Amino acid sequence: MAISKEIEIKCLLGEGRNAEAFRAKLAARYPDAKVLPATSQLNHYFVNGDFSVLKEKISSFLSAEQNQTLAEIIEQGKSFSVRTRFVDGKVLLVIKASIGSDTSDNGVSRMEFEEAVSMTLEELDQLLLSANFQYQAKWSRERVEYVLPNMNMTLDKKAGYGYLSEFETVIDENADVEETRARLMKEIESLGLVELPQERIERMFAYYNEHWPEYYGTEKVFTIN
Fold this sequence. Notes:
- The protein is of the alpha+beta class.
- Helix content is about 30%, strand content about 35%.
- It is globular.
């Protein structure tokens, strides 16, 4: 099974009025865009842990092909972001591994494993905890996804961050990462947005991780420059 690469660029909108202006530009540029139903999501992030124990404990919940992909990502990845997610009644295990110097949490180029498992969010969390992972933070968001030509775009209302858009495309392991990134940036600039710098993302991420109980499940927003 080929390992896909996720190319994702984030743009911070912040206030609701900025999100409304962006929606208007999006509708004008892509009047036929498919808009998927809005979802509410819970995302729990984990750190540390023993991947060999995780592979053993999760294997019975995955197909042989999924187990192989997970093993390859763990073997090839340089750093990892491990998450559990609840959305649309499904519970997902999400593992992202960095490509190059990007971070696995918020990097532009990553390998990704995202599969539904037949257990509750609490049960999956406990499985990770039993593999010596620890909670990093719990996140909540409301998401609308747009299917655009050659890419997907999401508009999130995210606890702590406010409104955030993510432009994403998935390519196979042999595709050109930089060429794909340049194409995404051209679309972003045409919509009047700017990329959220990685350094600022990391500062925001670190602040939220330290203060997440104040924001999880709320509409409170902070500003980190």
